[in-house]
């Protein structure tokens, strides 16, 4: 590695103007965005097969991808239905998983600063992948490009592979025999794992897994997911209590 002879450039926020020399090349942004869009979009095939195997029609399966377009929530919904869960309980679990996208939107609206007439359409593409690509960009221009390319490529490919998966489910037969019943948790874990960067986030995820597995044998399908959502407030409460106790001891 060559010896660095000048101080490193300071990374600027996407909301701040930057010099042209600090802009990330458009080709690099497009390459990264397409890589994410293609890699995740292909898993729509697994969703299409799983959804059809859970008893949803072709129209219902495709409508979920077109109108909901948030993979973890879609998998949670069809997974709960496949396990015999109440449709309302399954929908509630999917809804709570999708709520996180609203918080993503609060952050991205500041970074992207899109025109008002575009925002309702852009909101449909606010998901884990578009958020990750957008936040990784150094300027507003590259953030907008990354968001657009990721959202467009992922939306188109996800819906196409959903259709192919739903149509091919009949030819595949029993999805359990092929191991496709494991596609839902596998894809969800693949999306979640890279986001767990701190000890607190890993602890929340671990506690959520324990709660879900612990209540799985005794609660109706779909309800353990709702119980697992209590992991975050429970851990934050415990940390706050410990911090207050530590503060009191320091005062003494």
Automatic annotation (TrEMBL):
Bilayer topology annotation: Multi-pass membrane protein
Polar residues biased stretches: 1-18
UniProt record similarity statement: Belongs to the AzlC family.
Region (Disordered): 1-24
TM region(s), chain numbering: 33-50, 145-169, 205-238
Species per Swiss-Prot/TrEMBL record: Streptomyces albidochromogenes
UniProt-annotated location(s): Cell membrane
Keywords: Cell membrane, Membrane, Transmembrane, Transmembrane helix, Transport
Name of this protein: AzlC family ABC transporter permease
Taxonomic lineage of the native organism: Bacteria, Bacillati, Actinomycetota, Actinomycetes, Kitasatosporales
Pfam name, any one: AzlC
């Amino acid at each position: 590695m060559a010896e660095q002879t000048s101080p490193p450039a300071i990374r600027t926020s996407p909301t701040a103007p930057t010099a042209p020399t600090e802009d990330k090349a458009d080709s690099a942004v497009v390459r990264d965005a397409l890589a994410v869009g293609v890699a995740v979009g292909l898993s729509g095939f697994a969703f299409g097969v799983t959804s059809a195997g859970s008893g949803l029609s072709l129209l219902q399966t495709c409508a979920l991808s077109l109108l909901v377009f948030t993979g973890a929530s879609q998998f949670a919904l069809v997974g709960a239905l496949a396990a015999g869960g109440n449709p309302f309980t399954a929908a509630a679990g999917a809804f709570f998983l999708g709520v996180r996208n609203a918080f993503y939107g609060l952050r991205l609206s500041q970074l992207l600063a899109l025109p008002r007439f575009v925002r309702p359409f852009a909101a449909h593409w606010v998901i884990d992948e578009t958020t990750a690509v957008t936040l990784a960009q150094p300027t507003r221009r590259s953030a907008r490009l990354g968001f657009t390319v990721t959202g467009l490529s992922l939306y188109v490919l996800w819906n196409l592979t959903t259709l192919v998966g739903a149509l091919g489910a009949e030819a595949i037969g029993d999805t359990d025999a092929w191991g496709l019943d494991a596609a839902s948790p596998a894809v969800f874990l693949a999306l979640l794992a890279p986001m767990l960067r701190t000890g607190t986030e890993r602890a929340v995820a671990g506690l959520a897994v324990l709660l879900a597995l612990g209540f799985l044998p005794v609660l109706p399908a779909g309800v353990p997911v709702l119980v697992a959502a209590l992991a975050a407030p429970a851990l934050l409460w415990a940390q706050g209590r410990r911090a207050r106790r530590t503060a009191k001891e320091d005062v003494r």
